[in-house]
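If I may wish for something, please sit down with the protein I am sending here and say whether C-alpha cells and residues agree:
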Amino acid sequence: MSTSPELLDLAAQLKAADESFVLATVVRTVSVTAAKAGAKAIIRPDGSIVAGWIGGGCARGAVLKAAREALADGIPRMVSVQPNDLLAELGVKPGETKAGVRFAANMCPSQGTMDIFVEPVLPHPSLVILGASPVSLSLAAQARPLGYHVTLAAPASDLLAAPEADLLIDGFALDRLGDARRFVVVSTQGKGDEAGLRAALACDAAYHAFVGSRRKMDSLRDKLILDGIDAALLDKVKAPAGLDLGAITPEEIAMSILAEITLTRRRGQRG
C-alpha cells in the first residue's frame, strides 16, 4: 500500500516546524481488517488523526493510548490488536506487554489481527544558555551537532564573538521559546549572574544549572529567597553545572555539562 504524498508532506511540515506528532504504521494484518499493511496515520498530541487512516474503532483506542505514551517518553512501541481467543493462546491479557509488544483486544466482528508501529516524532531538544562567557560559546558550539536547538540569551554588548546558536536574544528575556523539552544553563560568570538566574528560574525546564562555585550559588540563593523566590525552586538548580570530570578549560566544562544533560535527557530510555 503506497503512502499518500499529502501525508508525507504534512509530516515533513510538522517536523520542520518542530511540532510533536506520532506516525502510526500498520506493519502486519491477519484475516479481515479494515486497514492493510502499509497504512499510515499522523496523530497529534491532542489525539486527533490529522492525516491517513489505520482502521476504525477496533484499533483506534489502543493506538491513541500508545501514541500518548510515546509522546510522553519518546520511545517507539509496537501494538498488536488481536481477538481474545488468540490473546489467550499467547498467554497474554489486553493491556499487557510481552517481548516489547503491547497487546489489545479486537472486539470487532471481523476478529482480525493488526500490528501497528507507533513512532513519536519530537522537536529537537532545546538548550537555553544565558550569558556570553567562553563556556556559553563552547556549549553552544558543542550542542548543535548533537541535535539541540540552541538559544543563547545575553546582552549584545557582552558578545565578543558570534555564537553558534539557532536563536540569539539580546538580554535575558526568554519569551520566544518553543514547546520542546528544555535544558537551561546559566553561564554568565560574573556578568549578570542574578538577572540570568532569575530568567532561568522563570523558564520551565527539565534541567537548570549554574556555571559557578557552590559558594557563589549559595550567596545568590540567599539573596533571591529574601526577594521572595521559592527555595524549592532554587534547590533544583545544579551548581556547579556538569559532571565532575575534573574539567578546567571552557571546552571541557561545556562537555561535562552536555554529558550531564544527556544523562537527564536519556533517563528512563535505557534498558
